[in-house]
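Support reply, case 0932

Customer input (verbatim):
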Amino acid sequence: MPFLQELSRKAPLAETLAGGKVRCLACAHRCLTAPGGTGRCGVRFNEGGTLKAPWGYISGAAEDPIEKKPFYHVLPGASTLSFGMFGCNFRCGFCQNWQIAGIRAAGRLSPLKTSPVELASQAVAAEARVLVSTYNEPLITCEWAAAVFSAAKESKLLTGFVSNGYATPEAASFLKPVLDLWKVDLKCFDEENYRKVCGGELSKVLEGIKIILGSGFWTEIVTLVIPGFNDSDKEIGAMADFLSGLSKDIPWHLTAFHPDYLMTGTPPTPQDTLYRAREIAASKGMRYVYCGNIPGAAGQDTVCPSCGLELIKREGFSVKRNLIGEKGTCACGANIPGVWA
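Our regenerated output:
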């Protein structure tokens, strides 16, 4: 992308090595580049022995309900200002934002120059309560995101990542002072498919989820359920076993696939497949499992696992009823994990 030279700064998340080489620490690829080289994301590059990363622009921004991210256990009904960048450290064949995530496609687009203060001010003007880095992978621009989120904190906004979870301890530590929420995609539970279809490693995603949870970020998980790719009872069960082993209170969103990008020949996810997956997750002890991407589907509401009371009723991205108070408790006294105020 021709604008990168101008709209980049020295990246703190890097290790300087002999011979002008640098190792990037922003994601689990830990790319090693020589001068003139570029990481797998296509936007972090070695300029004369210094790692440079994007700064001072976005690909776009939009006001979205927080349920669209999706975060179901954060400020129900709140508005977010969501912004994206360009590039990605994965190459998912089912990517729904390939126009900005793919370097070749994104190279034909123009950046929108801005500053952290301008983005935070835009969020305040929109009466958003959360500022979110999304649409492409935010880890590859986490220095810029940290600056934006620092400005957001001055305006008392919450901040969030919508991410593939390819996190490192270094990135999590760097972001911890200014990042509150982290939505992670768990795309499948098969190492070969992760490599072949997504360009990543399952083991590193699982480690990333552990890092994110262990660092204290509010975390919700999303799995796009794709027919013939990750929808078998065995694979759904393996994902549920892993997540329940970390915490049975992690909200898990099972969303329907719609043909896109390189997988236009794969059929949409049947509604019954999501219901079956949700039943498997519940059988493994997961307390908050949601179905999404199918209008009118069941499984969108938050229900108290102790007494069965329907606490938050949703229709699509709209909240129709919310009985959870700011302290996050049900009328029965049970605590519902989340960020409610």
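We compared this against your earlier run and they match. Two observations from our side: The chain is about 25% helix and 25% strand. The first strand starts at residue 8 and ends at 10. Please reopen the case if you see a mismatch on your end.
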